[in-house]
Design goal:
mainly alpha, two-stranded antiparallel sheet, 13 helices, about 55% helix, binds zinc ion
Length: about 300
């Protein structure tokens, strides 16, 4: 781990700029992609080795199933927008950690972790898709790398990076971890900004819809999450600050997401019910059938 960060110092000689998909915003990118991936992958392995992985095969399978569908959607979305290079170094992985914490994150390079404590808030497969889409969107929009770049300037601004990293390798490592997973307590690193949250919401909504999940599940999930904010807010809310603006924005983007959802529903052979265009008199008045989703069996 230390070696990675020493290498980081010597390769961090230039400032580059990336463009965020969908919003097309320019972002600061101080950490070279290869180094970002290397440190992310080793951080991820470290987290897994220190965690108890769930042995509930049904729940693990559901996380992987949703993850793979979102992955396919991301690949399609980026290919359609000529941005496939963003994920060329990704090594997707989806794991479920057995811990009663309301949290989930995706490190750079598609390394996803869900904690079993978030499953009751997700409720079902669509709820998982909301969180999966959102977290994967943070990685696709390279928010971790951007936060790491910002944190390096903020924390080590006045000091030569090589000196600071040599003298504070552990803090720097913690800083990377916090930047990737949205940790808010280490070294004063801020939670994901409202801008990052907003970008991840809109991209995430697109990804879940393209993967064939009803995007209407997103505002519902965030309402449930917000209801838990009284008392001691869950980890997920402290790193993903939320408010009424989020729900309002999600609903604002819903028509855009619904177009992707309708298209995915048409292309898919899976039993996603659609309004039957053949039955001319009933389709207008009957309420839209709700897609049958697999309910989670939560046992602690
Ligand atoms: Zn977020």
């Amino acid at each position: 781990m230390k070696k990675i960060f020493y290498t980081l110092v010597f390769t961090m000689m230039f400032v580059a700029c990336n463009k965020v998909p969908l919003s097309n915003r320019s972002q600061l990118s101080l950490v070279p992609k290869s180094q970002l991936m290397a440190s992310s992958f080793s951080s991820y392995d470290q987290v897994l080795s220190e965690s108890k992985l769930s042995n509930n095969t049904q729940q693990v399978q559901m996380i992987r199933n949703v993850g793979n569908k979102i992955k396919v959607a991301v690949e399609k979305y980026l290919a359609d927008n000529n941005k496939s290079d963003i994920i060329e170094d990704f090594e997707w992985e989806f794991n479920l950690i057995q811990e009663d914490v309301v949290n989930a994150w995706c490190m750079p390079g598609g390394k996803v972790a869900f904690y079993t404590g978030i499953l009751p808030v997700c409720q079902d497969e669509e709820g998982i898709a909301v969180v999966m889409g959102h977290e994967v969107a943070h990685a696709v929009a390279r928010h971790g790398g951007e936060r790491m770049s910002q944190a390096l300037i903020q924390q080590l601004g006045g000091v030569a990076l090589s000196v600071a990293l040599r003298e504070q390798p552990e803090q720097t490592q913690a800083l990377a971890m916090a930047a990737y997973t949205g940790g808010s307590t280490v070294l004063g690193v801020l939670p994901f900004s409202r801008l990052h949250e907003s970008e991840a919401d809109r991209l995430g909504l697109t990804f879940m819809a393209m993967a064939g999940y009803n995007p209407e599940a997103a505002p519902e999930f965030w309402k449930r999450m917000q209801a838990k904010s009284a008392g001691s807010p869950p980890e997920f809310l402290s790193t993903h600050p939320s408010g009424d603006t989020r729900i309002k924005d999600l609903n604002k983007w819903m028509p855009e997401a619904n177009k992707y959802y309708q298209k995915a529903s048409k292309e898919s052979n899976s039993p996603i019910p659609q309004v039957d265009s053949q039955s001319d008199n009933s389709s207008q008045t009957e309420p839209k059938k709700k897609k049958k989703v697999i309910q989670l069996k939560i046992d602690n």
